[in-house]
Design a protein that fits this description.
about 200 residues, alpha/beta, Rossmann fold, five-stranded parallel β-sheet
């Protein structure tokens, strides 16, 4: 068992940048991954206190009659209104932070990874030791998301991108930048960072 707490490493990047692919490579190297965006959705479904807060702030339409998240309503309400997006983030992110802390305490590796789209925007990167940004050109990101998420429109993806930080700002905050523009191998870049985190 490791005597000290693992190094906390964030992996971020705009929608369609390839964060999940990068995290899969880290995972094959034996590194545990906490997918903050997936966990946020689970908490929005199963954390009763959080559900009540969301309904209070955004309305009972936030959930469908069967208890599932009303994706269309939230996307329409939140991504076209930055104030409402901020309010939703202020509810969800503290719940995710608490869940992440409990998860970290169960891990026994040199470092762990927290994957999230909004690590910088929410300020949660400040609670991590290192930050990796996965960088890719906007047009390539849009193309990837359309292939992956058939339910999303071109306009909706643009709105999401416009609510996220500019690439240059992300790169400035990051300790490591992984270029995922199909010009360099991801595995090589990830392996270099892995060695750096293990041995430095």
């Amino acid at each position: 068992m490791l005597s000290s707490k693992p190094i906390l490493v964030g992996v971020t990047g705009g929608i369609g940048s390839g964060k999940s692919m990068v995290c899969k490579i880290f995972n094959t190297l034996g590194i545990p991954i906490y997918d903050a965006d997936s966990q946020a959705k689970k908490l929005m479904l199963h954390d009763d206190v959080l559900k009540q807060q969301i309904v209070h702030e955004l309305g009972k339409e936030s959930y469908l009659e069967n208890g599932s998240i009303n994706r269309d309503f939230l996307a329409e309400t939140v991504f076209s209104n930055s104030e409402k997006l901020d309010r939703l983030n202020q509810l969800v992110h503290p719940a995710v932070a608490k869940d992440f802390e409990a998860w970290v305490n169960e891990q026994e590796t040199r470092y762990v990874i927290k994957e999230a789209a909004l690590l910088i925007e929410t300020g949660s990167y400040k609670h991590l030791d290192k930050l990796i940004n996965v960088s890719a050109p906007v047009e390539l990101r849009i193309e990837r998301v359309i292939k992956r998420d058939a339910f999303r429109t071109h306009d909706e993806i643009r709105k999401i991108i416009n609510n996220q930080l500019l690439e240059e700002a992300r790169n400035e905050k990051a300790d490591y930048v992984i270029k995922n523009d199909e010009s360099e191998l991801l595995v090589t870049q990830v392996t270099e960072i892995h060695k750096s985190l293990l041995y430095n």
